[in-house]
Design a protein that fits this description.
The structure is a homodimer. By secondary structure, chain A is an alpha/beta fold. Chain A has 2 domains: 58 residues, Helicase, Ruva Protein, domain 3 (Orthogonal Bundle), CATH 1.10.8; 209 residues, 3-Layer(aba) Sandwich (Rossmann fold). Chain A is built from 13 helices and 7 strands. A 7-stranded mixed sheet of chain A has the order 1-7-6-5-2-3-4, with helices on both faces. In chain A, strand 5, helix 12 and strand 6 form a beta-alpha-beta unit. In chain A, helix 1 runs antiparallel to helix 2 and helix 2 runs antiparallel to helix 3. The first copy, chain A, is globular. The two termini of chain A are 22 Å apart.
C-alpha cells in the first residue's frame, strides 16, 4: 500500500526510540535523528512503509555499530510469552470454537511488545485482550479452505508473538506448515533464531523469507520462500508490516493482525486496536 | 527550555493535522509536509519549541493562504466551554477551598481541545478531569503572595480554556488582572478577539503580548506587556507552550498546566496527564 504522510512522524518517533535503545550518547542520537530527517524527506523514493522502516533502522545500526538494538527486548518478549503460554493453552481448552480462539491468540501476541515497553502487568493485559473478539473475521472462508488444504504458510511478525503463533500451529498440526521470518534482525521482528527459540521448529519448517525489511517485500525474497508462497494452499500473513507490503497482492492471503495505527484502520475500515482476520479474495 | 528530539516527530504530526484542517488538497498537504521536514532538519537554529511551532504552522498558512486554520475549532471550543460554564460554577460552589478548585478548573480547561478533537462527551470528560487533584500544587505560596498582591497577570493559552479561566478570574475579582494573549492566530491559542468572546473583557484588561508564537518569547513582546510582566505582583502562566519558553526565566512565575507529553513530564518530574500548579521561585 501507498506510504501515508502519517507514517513520516511515526518513523521519526521510531528511530528516536531505537537510537535510545542502541546508545546512551546524546550526540549519536542527534546525528541519527538528523540523518533520519534527511531520509524521510526522500520518502517518495520508497515503494512501501517497510522499506523506509528498514532504511531508518539501518541508520541506527550504522551509527552505533549495533546490529540488533532490539535483541534484549526480543529475548524478554519470548521469555514473557513462554510464561504466558500455559495460560494460553488453558484459555483455549475452555473454548468451544478452538480455531477461532487459536487465531485470536495468535493475533493477540501482537500486543506483547507494547505491553513490555509500557511495563504493564503482561498477563493481566493479555487476559483482557484475549477476550476481545475480531472486528472482521473471515473464519468461515478459512474453514472452507481448510477442508481441502494440506499446506499452510505463516508469514511471521514479532519475536514473542512467535510463541503465541505456536498455539495456532498446534491446532493446525495436521497441515504441512512453513513459518517464514525476516532474514536479519530488524526492529523486534522475529528471525529464524527467534522462531526456533520460540519452539516453532518442533511443529513447522522455519525458513527465512530472504527479505530483511519489517514487512514482506516479495521482490527481495529468496527462491525457497517464493516457491512456497506461490504453491502453498493457504497463507496467513501476520501484523501490520506484512499487511502494508502485501495488501495489494493478487495472491489470496488471510491477514491476521491487531490494528495499531489510524492509517491501517482507515485502509481496512475499522478502529485502532481492533483485531482482524481478513481474507483478501473475492467472494 | 531546550528543544528535545522528541519534539521533532510531534511537530510533523501537528503540521499534518493543521494542513488537513486548512485544505483537502493532497498535493498541498504533501508540499507542506516536505517543507516542514526541511524546517525541522534545521531545528538547532531555533531558540525553543514554540519558535519551531510558529514556523511550522506558518508553512501551512503560506501554502494554503488560510491565516487561521483552527478558527472553527476555536469557536467550537469557546461554545462548548460556555455550555459547561454553569456546571463549573456549580462545581466550585460545592467546594470548600474555592481557590484550589478555581485554579484546578482553569487548568482543566486545557483538555478542551483534546476532548473536541476526539469527539468524546465533553461534559462527562470535564467532570472526570475536574475531580483529579494537582500532582504539584504550590497554592500555599500563592496564598501567601496574594496577601500583599494588588495585581495579577495571566498569560493565556488556548481558546475555550479562556472561559474556564474566567472562573478563576471571578474568584480573584479584587485584583487588578491583565489577561495576555497571542498577537495573531496560531494553532488554537487564544487571541484578543477570542478572549473578548470568552467574556474575559468584563473582568480583566485583555492585551496582546505582541508575540505570535505558541508560547511566550519575551524578546518579541511589546512594551505594554513587558511593563506589566516586570511590575505586576503575581504571574500565572498557562499551558505547556508558555512553560517551554518561560521555564528558564528568573522572574517568579506560577505555572498552571496539564502535562501533555513526556518531554514536559520528565522536565517537571511528574507523569503525563498530571495537573501542575508550580511556582518557579526559591524557598
Amino acid at each position: 500500500m501507498e506510504i501515508s504522510l502519517d507514517c513520516l512522524p511515526c518513523f521519526l518517533r521510531q528511530v528516536l526510540e531505537a537510537s535510545r535503545m542502541a546508545t546512551d550518547r546524546d550526540d549519536l542520537q542527534r546525528e541519527i535523528m538528523e540523518e533520519a530527517i534527511k531520509l524521510i524527506s526522500d520518502y517518495q523514493k520508497f515503494r512501501c512503509s517497510p522499506e523506509i522502516g528498514r532504511a531508518i533502522h539501518n541508520i541506527v545500526k550504522n551509527y552505533t555499530g549495533i546490529s540488533d538494538p532490539y535483541r534484549e527486548i526480543k529475548i524478554k518478549s519470548i521469555k514473557s510469552a513462554e510464561e504466558v503460554y500455559p495460560f494460553l493453552k488453558h484459555f483455549l481448552y475452555r473454548k468451544q470454537d478452538k480455531l477461532y480462539w487459536a487465531l485470536k491468540i495468535a493475533a493477540t501476541g501482537n500486543i506483547l511488545d507494547l505491553a513490555i515497553y509500557s511495563n504493564v502487568n503482561i498477563k493481566k493485559c493479555i487476559e483482557e485482550e484475549l477476550e476481545k473478539g475480531f472486528a472482521i473475521c473471515d473464519i468461515k472462508r478459512f474453514k472452507e479452505q481448510l477442508k481441502n488444504a494440506r499446506s499452510l504458510l505463516i508469514i511471521g511478525d514479532n519475536a514473542g508473538e512467535t510463541v503465541f503463533d505456536r498455539v495456532l500451529v498446534e491446532e493446525l498440526f495436521y497441515l504441512d506448515i512453513t513459518y517464514a521470518v525476516r532474514s536479519e534482525p530488524i526492529i523486534n521482528d522475529a528471525t529464524v533464531e527467534d522462531a526456533y527459540i520460540s519452539g516453532l521448529g518442533r511443529y513447522t519448517k522455519v525458513i527465512s523469507t530472504g527479505c530483511n525489511a519489517p514487512g514482506l517485500i516479495l521482490e527481495e525474497c529468496n527462491e525457497e520462500f517464493l516457491n512456497i508462497f506461490t504453491n502453498v494452499d493457504i497463507i496467513i500473513s501476520k501484523g501490520q508490516g506484512n499487511y502494508e507490503s502485501l495488501s495489494d497482492q493478487k495472491r489470496e492471503i488471510f491477514f491476521l493482525l491487531k490494528v495499531k495505527c489510524l492509517v491501517i484502520a482507515r485502509k481496512i475500515g475499522v478502529d485502532v486496536n481492533d483485531y482482524i482476520f481478513k481474507w483478501n479474495g473475492l467472494i
